[in-house]
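Support request, please re-run this one:
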Amino acid sequence: MTEAGGPDGPIGAPHARYAPGTPCWVSLMAHGLTATQEFYGELFGWEFRPGPEQLGPYVRAALDGLEVAGIGQLPPDRHLPVAWTPYFATDDVDATAETVRLCGGTIGVGPLDAPDAGRLAIGSDPSGAVFGLWQAAGHVGTSLTGVPGTAVWNELTTYETAGVRKFYETVLGYEETEPSADLDYVTLYVGGHPVAGIHGVGASLPRDRGPHWTTYFEVADADAALALVERLGGQVLEPAHDSPHGRVAAVADPEGARFSLIQEPR
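Re-run finished. Output below.
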């Protein structure tokens, strides 16, 4: 994991537009929309407003009036995994979706319009990790980053980085990547800024999950946030520990959606 700044403006400031390849939005599809809003509202201080309903009931979470994430409701007859999904910016979602297919990935949803907001697609890489694509119109994506309650990093956990790294370079146009000397880890860059990571863990990858993206949300106090997660009915998967990038923990919400928390180094 690497410290990531925003593509436009200083950290903590509203964003104008995201460069192609930059994670620009994160969205959760859950079964109980009301209960899920209550959990994240208490945990991150989010308020909610209605969003496009092309995929069913959907709300956008906001901090200080600036949108930071989305939560949608899964149809009751569809038993899909409850998970956070990062969306990557593109100037042409149809062309990018076609490149996904040509490179061995799949497109499961779209491309389709979210009226006045933009155009989206949801797909998976050749290993099965799910991600989204977003072509902005009226809605650029996450409007605020770098403060508690916002997504600050997205990381792919997969078997090995070599093949999947080439997939994301081709699909999203990363011209600069930085392998780690110590482990099978690659940092993806856009315009000189680190924007996401790919971590190959080999046989250590959980069989019940497979390759997957994880979103890191910033918190002011990781230990206090863990206590709140448990009080709200969530689960601590990995206790807080110190790392070079801050104090990090892995958790799940009451429906099982996994995500990580990070507190900046003091």
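The first strand starts at residue 23 and ends at 30. The mean pLDDT is 90.
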